[in-house]
Design a protein that fits this description.
about 40% helix
Amino acid sequence: MLSNDDLESLSELNIESIKKSSLKELNEIAVDFNLNIEDRMEKFLNTIYNPYYFLVNGTPVQITYNNHNNKTLDDCLYSYLNERKDKDN
């Protein structure tokens, strides 16, 4: 699992410095809903590698998280993976 320091370093990268070929297509990441949420999150992070930069329909996307609503990256991933579960079922 990526450490908080790893995530911090990944968040500070500049999208222009990242090769498009190194980014993962978000919609192609399989999620095993038989796993508990913690294992799903770990597998998702290991697969996408950098949750701040990825592709959506071939377009590079950079996302940022702010803390004005007191949500962490874990909270956001938890919500995303649960929404995917509801949508995929």
